[in-house]
Amino acid sequence: MYTKVKNYNELFIKLRPDFPMIWATLEVIQPNKIVEYGAGSGRILPLYIQTNAYEIVGLDIEISMVNSFIEYGNDTNRITAYCQDVCEYAPILKDADIVIMTSSVMKHIEPKLRERAWNAISNSLGENTIIFIDHCTYIYDQNESTKWQNYYDTLKFWWAEEDRSKLKNYIWKKNVNRKEDILYIKDLKTEEEMCFRTFVYDIDEMIEDIKKENLQYIQISDTFTLAYSKPYTKRFIALLAHKNFDTKRLSSIKENILKLL
Ligand SMILES: C[S@@+](CC[C@H](N)C(=O)[O-])C[C@H]1O[C@@H](n2cnc3c(N)ncnc32)[C@H](O)[C@@H]1O
Q1: In this predicted model, what pLDDT tens digit does every residue of 97-106 receive, in sequence order?
Q2: Strand ranges for the chain from DSSP E
């Protein structure tokens, strides 16, 4: 699905709406070991590298993404990446201080495999590990199929001013049905097309799935910082933890994150 990493990176590597929230979370947790699930090509690596973490691990199902993560990191002492399906047990999570699951990564899992994926995450999770999750029911908050639209005309507010000009080269459309939420992206210069098949995964349904696994959760916010909140997109930005994690500590981590924003 993410085989055209070069095109993907040109468009997405500088996408940063979630950076303030993830930065604040890393600041509060001060992790020694960071793991990212569905890490992609390492878009968030610039934040990880700024921390004092001695180990930064990216896990992704696509080998092209894993390679790109390592290459983008260019800090081989601390950075590793592995091909790993989120639906399988991942013992590597046991001693992580923080696991990042951003950009609605669970939307990539087929509905029939979700239970298995949550079960694998829950079984792999250390008692002292925090998961930071950011999830949205629909890509770009569009719950209906759309025609082709230009990124610059519709979504430039997600990118920093200096990165916006390249957006004029890309158009996108969606095909949404009851189960699927498929995004098509076309590079106008090369006519190359990328297609990302995701599944509609309602926030409330996700919360139910998290509860079934006996994971604790605390929502931090339902939107990114104000600068990025137009159009308003309801998100589930939350911390998850093992059932034995100190609940008071979880609340205090949330409060400290909010103080930094
Ligand atoms: C939208 S990208 C997000 C990448 C990165 N987390 C970011 O925020 O930029 C989703 C990533 O999840 C990966 N992915 C999809 N299904 C997966 C699975 N079952 N296990 C692990 N990774 C998966 C994809 O290959 C892709 O790189």
Answers
A1: 999 999 999 9
A2: 33-37, 55-60, 79-83, 98-101, 130-136, 149-150, 170-176, 180-187, 193-199, 216-221, 235-241
Give me ligand 1 centre to Cα 214, in Å. Answer: 24
For ligand 1, atom 27, name the residue with the nearest CA.
40
- For residue 62, give the ligand 1 atom closest to its CA: 25
Q: In this structure, how many other beta carbons lie within 10 angstroms of the beta carbon of residue 156?
A: 16
Which residues make beta-bridge pairs with 94? Answer: none
Ligand 1 centroid to Cα of residue 209, in Å, is 19
Cis (ω within 30 of 0) for the bond into 46? no
Calculate the alpha carbon distances from 5 to 8, 89, 190, 194 in Å.
5, 26, 15, 10
Residue whose CA is at the smallest distance from ligand 1 atom 1: 103
| H/E segment holding residue 40 | none
Distance 60 CA to ligand 1 centre (A): 6
Listing DSSP states for 222-261 in one string gives SS--GGG-SS---EEEEEEE-TTS-HHHHHHHHHHHHHH-
What is the domain partition of the chain in residue ranges?
5-138+202-260
Is the per-residue pLDDT at 250 higher than 80? yes
CA–centroid distance, residue 39 to ligand 1 (Å): 6
Q: Which residues does ligand 1 sit against, CB inside 6 Å?
A: 2, 38-40, 43-44, 60-62, 65, 84-87, 102-103, 105, 108-109
Residue % of the chain over a pLDDT of 90: 77
The helix/strand/coil state of 56 is strand
Q: Which residue has the tokens 């930071």?
A: 132
Please give the CATH superfamily to which domain 5-138+202-260 belongs: Vaccinia Virus protein VP39 (3.40.50.150)
